[in-house]
From TrEMBL:
Domain Fe2OG dioxygenase: 111-210
Domain of life, source organism: Bacteria
Any one biological process term the GO annotation gives: DNA alkylation repair
A Pfam entry, by short name: 2OG-FeII_Oxy_2
GO MF annotation: an example: dioxygenase activity
Official protein name in the record: Fe2OG dioxygenase domain-containing protein
Amino acid sequence: MSYQLQGSLFDADGPEAGPALGPLGGIGRTVLGHGAWIDVLPGWLRGADALFERLVDGVPWRAERREMYERVVDVPRLLAFYREGEALPDPVLAEARDALGAHYRAELGEPFATAGLCLYRDGRDSVAWHGDRIGRGDREDTMVAILSVGQARPLLLRPLAGGGPTVRRSLGHGDLLVMGGSCQRTWEHAVPKSAGAVGPRISIQFRPGGVR
Ligand SMILES: O=C(O)CCC(=O)C(=O)O
Ligand SMILES: [Fe+2]
């Protein structure tokens, strides 16, 4: 596929360096309110450009179409989903899932089990405001951990009710963001379209079983 990154401007290790995870100890928490929080660790994965290139070429990306307002429209991003127990497309993703599971074991009480992948080809690709509420996230506190590779795009978060400022975090190049507590129920998140020239980004979302 030809969604190329423009060089490896942000990858200090150079494009040849294999991907490697750093420690999770330095992750920082922001309490959002209404029982929700986010943890953010910029640059958790070194060599993220190399992983981006492997995933662009190695993942069986699907274009989906969905019914919306009685019309069938293209979902504006490419998707892949790995169920619990299914082999992930790169060994470093299994490492990431397991490291997250170990780090959050006491607080989450269960492992991260599935991996959803999104490829945002350019600024026209996006995800609209939503919570991950198809599964248990609708009723229970849970966590969704997002590892981002490729060009950075802003992830926005806003409270579902009651108003308040929108929270914005730029995610790409190996950054980690974990949504926790009631975040899927009491907050929404989105990756808005961008009018400017934006390179491709891949988001990898790790979730416990039964959370979508
Ligand atoms: O691109 C992202 O990091 C967010 C993706 C997302 O919210 C989802 O797939 O549920
Ligand atoms: Fe989401």
